[in-house]
């Protein structure tokens, strides 16, 4: 699985949905960040993560 760090996950999800991206489930929020998963055209799962940097200080 590929993993990408994202600056604004909610805004990116809006754009991905507009483009017809295959999104796997709902966005999840934790104390250390937000996560969601999408699939590329070949069916590979991609994780998108917007960290909360203050959780790592």
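^ structure tokens above, recovered residues below v
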């Amino acid at each position: 699985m590929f993993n990408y760090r994202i600056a604004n996950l909610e805004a990116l999800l809006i754009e991905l949905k507009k483009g017809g991206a295959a999104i796997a489930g709902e966005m999840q929020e934790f104390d250390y960040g937000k996560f969601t998963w999408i699939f590329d055209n070949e069916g590979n799962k991609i994780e998108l993560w917007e960290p909360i940097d203050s959780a790592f200080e």
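Residues 35 and 49 are 5 Å apart (CA to CA).
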